Amino acid sequence: MNGAARLFRWIYESEPDGVWAAPGRVNLIGEHTDYNDGLVLPFALQERTLAAIKQRDDGLIRICSSQNPNEIIGIPTKELAPGWPAGWSGYVAGVPWALETDIGFDVAIDSSVPVGSGLSSSAALICAVGLGLNELFGLGFSRRELARRTHLTENEYVGAPTGGMDQIASLLCIEGHAILYDVRADSVDQIHFDPIGAGFEVVVVDTMVRHGHAGGEYAARREDCELSAAKLGVATLRDVAYADLDSALDKLGDEQLIKRTRHVVTENQRVLDTAAALDADDWPAVGELLTAAHTSIRDDFEASCVELDIAVDMLLDSGALGARMTGGGFGGAAIALVATEKSESARRTVRSVFADNGFVPPHIFTVVPSAGATRIA
Fold it and tell me: Could you count the other beta carbons within 10 Å of the beta carbon of residue 337?
């Protein structure tokens, strides 16, 4: 059932002009590298956000969602300005601002992407609305340009200092593939990724520990990376070659900046190594790289949390080939590459240990590399 269209009819008492869907994403590997002009390897989820939209002729935007169906937010397009409105509706209001259109519209939102779980619910929302407005208003933006502009929505309108990976993944992924995205080169390579066909599942453990990207620790890590680059005399940490890492670290003289830099540079190399392992169908190597990535982001980038670390440890103890935190961190989700026959046992173990520790019960599910954003009605 199309929950967004159903909500639209109920709230606005009319039919939408169309419904667009955009997926969340799992970043297989490559964490906190995108805003360092680095490399990432995300894939799109089957979980998506739906936006039912109808054009208006009075320059007014009206927003509602199935998560809070009794609230309708109205905003004149001429009053759009970064930071207003606050909250989730700002992600919608910022889209026409980034697309430089003053055409009004009604929109109803429904989503199956967990919020705050590191699976990019915000980009799914922005991209569903962005694709819809682009097609409905005939704005003519390519998907690459649409990804750039929707990234502006998150960075400049909402004020969340995220990289551009999420929008690229939501708009450009294809089924059965991950995207090797080189941020600096703005290049995309589709990497075949079919774990189920190889006898594995990608299991996601949503720890239910929620985070926010509009400030706090995420922004602090980005500042650390920028300071490290400045001290090294380079534009971004992408300019530090893996072969030159030791000499670069010697120049920093600050333990915190050394750790942040070491994570970013080694993580870029792990992305390349993971893409090569997938091309070679070397699934054990993929698993080892995932686990090494978690160790790096836990110890050097210090972006994990107790629940994530326990989830990763339990998944590995249950026979996963590899496991790691995914997303911005400080909460959210862990992923694991698990043989299909071990998947259910791994889930039981994680649930049991979370219960023993008095944690909120986790949401555990399998994700499948899926297609990017599209019109569905």
Answer: 25
